[in-house]
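INPUT
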Amino acid sequence: MSAFLEIKDLHAKVGDKEILKGVNLTIESGKVMAIMGPNGCGKSTLSAVITGNPTYQVTGGSILFKGKDLLKMTPDERANAGVFLAFQRPTELPGVSMAQLLKAALNAKRTFLKEKPLDAVQFMKHLKVRATALGITDEMLKRSVNVGFSGGEKKRLETFQMAVLEPDFCILDEMDSGLDVDALKVVGGAISVMREEKRSFMIITHHDDLLRYVAPDKVAIMRDGKILQVGDKELVAKVEEKGYDNF
Amino acid sequence: MQEKKCFFLTFFNKSGIFIGMNKKNADILKILKGGYKEGFSIDISAVQAPKGLSEEIVRFISAQKNEPNWLLDFRLKAFRQWQKMPEPHWLKGEYAPIDYQDIYYYSAPDRKEKPKSLDEIDPKIRETYDKLGIPLKEQEVLSGVAVDAVFDSVSVATTYSKALKEKGILFCPISEAVREYPDLVKEYLGSVVPYTDNFFACLNSAVFSDGSFVYIPKGVKCPMELSSYFRINAKNTGQFERTLIIAEEDSVLSYLEGCTAPQRDENQLHAAIVEIIVKDRADVKYSTVQNWYPGDENGKGGIYNFVTKRGLVLNDAHLSWTQVETGSAITWKYPSCILKGDNAKGEFYSVAMTNHYQQADTGTKMIHLGKNTTSTIVSKGISAGKSSNTYRGLVRMSGTAQNARNISRCDSLLIGGNCGAHTIPVMKNENKTAIIEHEATTSKISEEQLFYAQQRGLNKEEAVSLIVNGFCREVMKRLPLEFAIEAQKLIGIQLEGSVG
Amino acid sequence: MTISKLPFLFNRQEKVLIHHPDEHEWQFIVQERGELEAFFLPINQNLKVSVILNGAGAKSDIKCAYLSNENNDLKLDIQVLHKVKNTTSNQQIKGLATGESSVLLTAGIEIPKNTNGCEGYQNHRGILLSDKAKISATPQLEIWSEDVVCSHGSAVGPLPDDELFYLETRGLKKSQAEKLLLSSFFNDIVPGEFRTHIKEWMEQNV
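OUTPUT
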């Protein structure tokens, strides 16, 4: 049986600069994997390459997601296969409301799964339950996606989208940067609620803020475009104590 | 099987509340996948004037309509003036010369008298409306929409005039208004757009076929959105609609205009005039969704749309133009406001989308004459394919426009590397207390935006459509809701195939 | 640099300052990686500037301050053509009109087909100082290429009320406040060596 996510010898560059220099990583189903590393080590690039961001060119290696070759798929195909990215810096979509985006996204996924699109009532119900839980107001749903929101609000909205779209594989890129304790609790809580057998998480971070609220099953240490070590959650404490220079 | 289509028709009950559309949206999309399928034609033995334009033809048109002498004189004066005028060519675009002698200037459904009720309407025409999704019979039962539909050059049906009449509102074909309310027509026809105004307005004044007439009495709020539905049908028939709207003091009106056209290979000339008089404290909103046949992927065929739309806005009055322009091979259109009264307010909200070989040159003119007059311009241009899309505008603050204020914002979006987007605003300030402010941007959809939407599961085409509709939202939200939904779909349909 | 025959060719970074009462027409061709920085000061005189960005990486930065008074008619025409890809242009135009003078400004950015990666910016601010002065501005963008970033902004009117009010709350009379704002109006675009010309003009006309 194939693994949930299997990355082998992944190389990627932006422009002429090689950023991923042979990443090997396996994530099992139902697990939370933390990726820790100093700024510039390539961890955000890893999330971009998994999701198919066209800014990065893959120059070697493979990514298998539930046996499927992600590198052969377009970004939307990867999304509909169940890969979700909570962006570190979410992009602004002026004039497009969050409700509009999510309706289009949910229906795209349902079409992909050959299910009927949700009607307006079902959709609003699906949205409202999650919005309430995450403290997302109606007004936030009507406003343009990521336009004029504070850093913390944007992160909460990313988490909200994750909750609405219910993806199998959730990548959270630096969700804890710029978040206060209350917001961290909300995001951490959402992840805890969503944890289940068929769903895995990849939490990208450079310190332990979010990991205080979500206990990872495994921790990978990344430096200079490579995964140096994979261990259990005790690694987090080691990083906090000694920094990355000792890996 | 007959396909019913209705893009822009809105249904309201008698109290003006929207009650629904007569077409499932999903079907519209399905039908339209793969190209413009609105086109079809119907064989009606039309009463036609011979091709070409001469004084005799002008007299023929006037005689066909049993017009009074003053109107014939108006037409003849215009015709003589038109003969002296050169065709303007300053629009940013190119098209084959128009042979004005190769156009029919009059055609009418073969009827001696105007039908008195829907049942009297030529079954073939009814069939056309059915294909378009406007079964009039059904409409009358289902809805409170008052439709003044132009079929070829003669209005064949007007519904609900009676209900409006009770409020003193007149809504009828302009040909009928000439007979029934000659004093009103005589007083206001050509008062905002004189026949000497420009080449195409002059042509229209000479040969105008029919159009809508609206009169809202003092203090009356029109209880429903008035909607006029235009269509071009008979082969080689230029369409020369003439719309005249008079809003008396303290009145309120919202008017909708929407168009689709049958597919044709020949280019069809269209030169309409819309004149609006907005008296003291009156409020008029004029919304258009224009989707005439734009020509095929190779630029063959399509409508030439040369329109003059202008409103005269008096003290404390308000005129708002909203337009979504997606059709026509050539669009030449500048809905304007003459802000004559003190505190008058003018608005122009526009989305112009071009694809394939379409050429749009559109914008507005805001002429500030009164004190404390204000105007707002929001223009969103989207160019795709090999099209060219130009915003052209004029804001003029005359010496009398004390403390007048204008704000303009023009944004252009380019999709693909073979199209053009141009912005040509002219700002004339002749008053030191007046302020004109203009901002414009031109860009493409960013890679980041596309990736973000795709990461949420939308394919590239859906993502572009979503982002483009977001780009237009400021304008779309000015439209009545169901009009806006249709307009949004139209943008999506128009984008099909343009995303590489 | 010395002014000789038209057009001027630029292939390196260069700065030109122009206030020539006799010369109205200027043409610049900026070659690969050349950088043109030019300043114009038309006082009651016409101006026609054409810039062609002719090599990759070429940049132009055009600044223009215009002044018109009495019954002068000024025609200002500034055009930038991005002939090749990855070129950048900026235009900053500011001016004052008083007396019965009129100013007609056309400023354009043209980006033809297949010239990706261009950026063009344009900004104009005109202030009317008398009842009979007129400013007419037509900023034009003509874009035929997809991968571009372009913007223009233009405003014509009096000095901003809020700025005047701010100064009045600080104890300045309205006329003093106006003078202060006008004296600093051109500061961001006019090089030091030309400020005296502007000061002289203001003393005579404001």
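end of record. The helical segments of chain C are 161-169, 174-185, 195-205.
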